[in-house]
Design brief:
With 297 residues, the chain is of the alpha/beta class. It has seven helices and eight strands, in the order H-H-H-H-H-E-H-E-H-E-E-E-E-E-E. It has two domains: 111 residues, no CATH class; 173 residues, OB fold (Dihydrolipoamide Acetyltransferase, E2P) (Beta Barrel). It has a five-stranded mixed β-barrel. It is elongated and about 75 Å long.
């Protein structure tokens, strides 16, 4: 009975995530076919377990009728042995109950509880750190902030070939606009070829984050991105620098245009790209605040 219930609730969880669109907050949508396939598999397993449960019910009834035909003497002969088996089965039932409960909790809470949107509080919780671009061995903060580094998912040669290939779509341009579709690709190119973008005009949007060690006219413009799934998500973006001091709180959505350059950021002990703002405006929070790594080769 518990198996059927778990399968029903788990299938319902995946169905609800797809129906509401919240599945995009857990995985890169290019892999949505995998979770859709899982719904089909879970449905089939539910039907199979349901048939097995129904069949076992009929078998128990037949077995019960058979036991009733046994005489009283045989019942007494096996009474003590049956008592020991009941103790063992009780222990197994408790273990099964605990195991099923641990599975049921996420299946139920995933539907009942609202899906939280990642924001600057998570950046604070995870810590604001960034490996130097020159040091490939230092992976502290990988996939946390700023640079959506794909090097963790492939060997170094393939990674360099990938970034070099993708850079051809950006370096020749003098005016660049990062869209939801190419946000992570464009950022990675800019972090790996930051010198090539100095003096170019860039337009991007995201939520504000006041990082540690900034100047009064600086803050970060970030967006949470998923490379494959929420496990490798991070707050990716760029430092922006205003002509004058500003006081903008966290989690305000802006579209910003400016001239690209690099600046030494003491907190991270490295040079990072910076966007020197020439114009900006507030924008509403997008329906889907996340961005995704849409091209891998």
């Amino acid at each position: 009975m518990f198996k059927v219930l778990i399968l029903i609730l788990t299938t319902n969880l995946f169905l609800m995530l797809h129906a509401t669109g919240n599945i995009s907050k857990y995985i890169n949508m290019k892999y949505s076919f995998l979770s859709a396939s899982m719904i089909v598999i879970l449905f089939i397993l539910t039907v199979v377990e349901g048939i097995k449960l129904w069949s076992s019910g009929d078998e128990k009834e037949k077995h019960h009728d058979c036991e009733c035909s046994h005489d009283h003497h045989e019942h007494e002969h096996h009474h003590e042995h049956g008592h020991e088996k009941k103790k063992q089965s009780a222990g197994k039932k408790i273990k099964k109950f605990l195991a099923y409960t641990l599975v049921l909790i996420p299946a139920i809470s995933g539907v009942v509880l609202p899906v939280a949107t990642l924001d600057s509080q998570l950046v604070d919780a995870k810590g604001f750190s960034f490996p130097t671009l020159e040091d490939g061995t230092n992976r502290e903060g990988m996939h946390q902030v700023l640079n959506p580094d794909m090097s963790k998912f492939m060997n170094q040669t393939d990674f360099e070939d990938l970034v070099r290939k993708e850079s051809k779509s950006y370096i020749p341009k003098n005016n660049i606009t990062l869209t939801d579709k190419d946000y992570l690709v464009g950022l990675e190119v800019m972090y790996n070829f930051s010198g090539a973008f100095a003096g170019k005009t860039l337009t991007m949007k995201g939520f504000t984050y006041n990082g540690p060690g900034e100047q009064p006219n600086q803050l970060f413009l970030l967006r949470f991105g998923l490379i494959h799934c929420v496990a490798d998500s991070g707050a990716f973006g760029m430092m922006i620098q205003f002509p004058k001091n500003v006081h903008i709180p966290n989690d305000q959505w802006y579209q910003v245009t400016g001239t690209m350059d690099t600046v030494y950021y003491p907190q991270m002990k490295t040079k990072i790209p910076v966007l020197k703002v020439t114009s900006y405006k507030t924008i509403p929070k997008p329906n889907d605040p996340y961005v995704y790594r849409n091209t891998l080769n």
